[in-house]
Amino acid sequence: MIHTERLTLRPVRDDDLDALFAIYTDPRVMRYIGTPHRDRDRTARMIAGIRASHAVTGLEYVVERDGRLIGKAGLWKFAEIGYAFAPDHWGQGIGREAVGAVVNAAFGRHPELHALDAEIDPRNLASAALLSGLGFREVERIAAAVEIDGESCDSAFWRLDRPVR
Hints:
The chain is an alpha+beta fold. It has helices at 17-24, 27-30, 40-57, 94-109, 125-133, and strands at residues 2-3, 7-10, 60-65, 68-77, 80-85, 115-120, 137-148, 151-161. Helices cover 33% and strands 35% of the residues. The mean pLDDT is 94.
């Protein structure tokens, strides 16, 4: 578990299903991620994936603010960070606070990590700004790398090297 000034990042629980389903059915959240969830089974499978990632990395969390689940952030692959937040919390620095906490914990807990990676849709300017603000830099872009709702989309790969101390 990680605590920041405004947030609690904690492991996912079964009773998080409804809150995560609400986030991942929102087309605004999924615009640059993938197809919105249409049923709770898909969200339940995602919860199983979050648990599996947390078992490996120790850093895959749901994010709470004032006791309310508002998103997720963590390492969903050993060195790849992922995040999503409910739209009513966008533009408040929540993403930067949560992702920054995960970055600090990742480098603090895993000395073998030399860098962290993120993959985003380059049209997602808010996500690019979040990553840039945390010191990530874009290292590669691949055209037509993924398909989202039948649309071919590019992928931008970002990297943050371990800070030198």
